[in-house]
Write a structure and sequence with these properties.
Layout (H helix, E strand, L loop, with lengths): L10 H18 L2 H4 L12 H8 L9 H12 L2 E6 L8 H13 L4 E6 L8 H5 L3 E5 L3 H5 L5 H6 L8 H17 L1 E4 L3 E3 L5 H4 L3 E5 L15 E9 L5 H9 L14 H10 L2 H4 L3 E3 L1 H4 L7 H6 L3 H7 L2 H4 L4 E3 L3 H4 L5 E2 L2 E2 L14 H8 L18
Parallel strand pairs: 1-2, 1-4, 2-3, 6-8
Antiparallel strand pairs: 4-7, 5-9, 6-7, 10-11
Amino acid sequence: MEQAPRRPARLPALRACLLTLAVVLLLLLPQELGGGSAAAPLSPQLRPVVAARAAPPNPYNFTPAEVRAISEHIRAPLLHLVWTKDMSFWSWIFYAVVESIFVHHPRARVTFYSVQMPLDFFACLSAAGYDVRVERYNLTELAAGTEVEGLVASGRVAGSRYRYAHESDLVRIVILSKLGGAYTDTDMLFLRPMDDHVLGLPALGLETNARGVHQFHDPASARLNNAFINFPLPGHPFLACMMANIAPGYDPDEWAAIGPDLVTRCHGALAPDAKGAFRILEPNDLYPLDWKYAWWAASVMRRGDLDLMWPPGQRELSYALHLYNSNSWNMQDIHVGGVSVGGFETMTAPLPGSWLAETLEKGRLKGVQCEHLRKKGGLE
């Protein structure tokens, strides 16, 4: 019988393939493992990236007690707010901000420091189980024994044309230095929960000035803002820098003297090892809209036009929107891209269909009887 033809042996070919594969693997392995010379040094551009990935999870060598304090701050944020004006300035937007805090952080521990706000101002929220209180402060007593004691005693802050802003700047820095936690402005509207990215390390937000709708962020004009400051633990060297530099550089005629200008300078003075555990938040995190346009864009602008300044994909990533202050709310002639778009009256309610109107309606607390806090003055 004729035998079937024998298939050629595949063993030599298989050996050749395995040998080739081994050579390729040796070429791809790091030099230290391949038995050759030392690996080439990383380029300067790659070194920070690798160093960041290799950084220990506890760069400050926190004690167990400090780790617990930070974890508790992330779970139930300790938030400080300062109200320096009389109650006639209170309006619906400030209650909307308080609502936004508890909508996204129902366990938040909120304290308003104020001279004139009634101590039971938020009784309706307390009755609903939210942790919010009003505490009195005396600026002279608060500054006693600190680097700003002499400045406060001199009366220069009380006599400043920016007294309300400067007093608020002072109080927030001293409170954070003593207690830690996070400070937030009363016009910082929260849009989603803050996580460990915001609350887990000392953090400040970067803002930029606008140069028109289509060229919104201007990195050349970037600076830090102090409308939100997070220091989970007291005693940070950044806070010490601010305390030490308030009085020497104080200018009663400069609005940002002990605000954005001071925090920007102190960050620049931080030692490299301290900067390694200090987080700078991107402009879109807290300050997605320039102060000149923030209120108007959010409360008046059509959605399609707002999308040009603050695209939906970026809005979803923003933790908050700073609505800034009366300088923004009371602008009578706003220019966007060199074109006048008119003005609006102070504290005008957002137009129906605007982004702010829709956001506030979706972000209301349920089961609380606090409608009086939406009124001017906020009193029953």
